[in-house]
Amino acid sequence: MGFLSKLFGKKKAAAPPAPPAAPPQAAPARAPAATARPAAPAPPPAAAPPPPKPAQAPPARPAAPATSAPPAAPAAPATASAPAPAAPAPQAPKPSGADVPWMTAADYEKRKVQAQQVAAPAPAATPAVITGKVEVTPESEFYQGFVRFTVSVANGMNVPAGRMQVILDYNEDILRLQRIEPTNLRAAGSRVLLGDVKPGDTKRLVYYLDPQICTESLVDGVVQYRLPDGKTKAVNMRPMKAEVVCPLFFTKEVASSALLKRLVENELKVRDSKVYHTTLGMGAQHSKVYDVAKSAVSAHDVKEVREFLTYNPYAAECWFYGETKVKGYKIVIRAAVREQENVVELFAASTEAKAVTGLLAELNRQLVTDLESKLPGTSVEQVLDDTFKERVQAQAQTARLSVDEIGAGETEM
After folding, report:
1. 273 SS3 class
2. What sign has the CA pseudo-torsion 81, 83, 87, 90?
3. Alpha-carbon gap, residue 27 to 11, rounded angstroms
């Protein structure tokens, strides 16, 4: 019994360890866990398998910052790893600027201009060494009663001459600027703007100077231009002498009216005139002005040939013939006054332009001086319009010179 009791006693002692199997009663611990919010841990054990998959998705993480949406990171690997980088690719560049809300229309235009400047070809570089020079060639001649002064400017450099201008210097008391050719250039007095002159180009200007008296006068000037680096250069013009010589007359005999007509129409091809508008002083009349103009011509050693007078309105013209003392040039002179047009005309024709220019300059000086002394308050203003001068010349009685010829010095009414 004692043995059996011991044996059974050991079995009974071994039985009690069964209660430790009661840990399944730990379910009550789950119950409180289920009631509590820590139920979140339950899903994690179920989602435990996915963690290895995200471990394979590290390459997809760069795509997640591109989309700038943290929740999309797991979605991207769920779809596919290859399309994920392709999707943000079109969103990376923004060339149009339309997706940039803070840009204004001015910013768009600025970008457009910058793009055009980048696309435009670069301008040709200025040569490091400038070779050659600007050459100025002046010339003068007598032309239709004027001193015609020509200025030729040649750009012999290997760079453009920018904003080139010519400035002519002369005595305005002796020479009066009548016009400049070409007429389409910008000019202020004798200053003429030629503009930019390319390498190898030549520009040409013509000044028409009307001499007021017989004398010698120097004409010079300067040509200014700008280099590509902004420096201004100047070339002085070689001085030219404008010599207006009054012809000396020595007329031996009186010419006939027929001779004057033939000379004017056929032989004396160089001709010009000075035409004036008159301003009459107190008590002055056009007939008195005609007497002064006629005496200005008669002061020289010339012969009066024919005179025509009409009245209401008053019109008068007198023809003269002369020969120069040194060269023997034949010259026909006409002084005329017409009340209707209010003009005074001094006309000369010869075979030598120099003689015509000098004579008209001297007659101009004599007329102005005599009017001041003989008719105070009366003055004349020279007309420079060539069309008007030609119209006045056309009114001359040239065709009547040989008709019903009368003796020299007689008057035809």
Report:
1. strand
2. positive
3. 30
Q: Quote the tokens at residue 379.
A: 């003055």
Give the angle subtended at the CA of 126 by the CAs of 121 and 127, to the nearest 5°: 130
For residue 227, give the nearest of 235, 238, 219 by alpha carbon: 235
353-374 and 286-298 helices cross at what angle (nearest 10)?
A: 130
* Dist. CA 382–CA 380, nearest whole Å: 7
> Which residues fall within 8 angstroms of residue 381, CB to CB, at 6 or more apart?
276, 277, 279
In the chain, where the domains are located: 134-243, 257-412
Instruction: Name the CATH superfamily housing domain 257-412.
Output: TATA-Binding Protein (3.30.310.10)
Per-residue pLDDT for 98 more than 70? no
Residues contacting residue 357 through CB under 8 Å, at least 6 positions apart: 142, 145, 146, 147, 211, 244, 272
Residue-level pLDDT at 224: 95
> Dihedral angle at the C-alpha atoms of 198, 181, 243, 270, nearest 10 degrees?
130
- CA 45-51-56 angle, to 5 degrees, is 165
Indicate yes or no: pTM above 0.85: no
d(CA 263, CA 392): 20
**pLDDT tens readout for residues 204-213:** 999 999 888 8
**CATH number 2.60.40.10 given to 134-243:** yes
Q: What's the DSSP call for residue 57?
A: -
Dist CA 323 CA 326 (whole Å) = 9
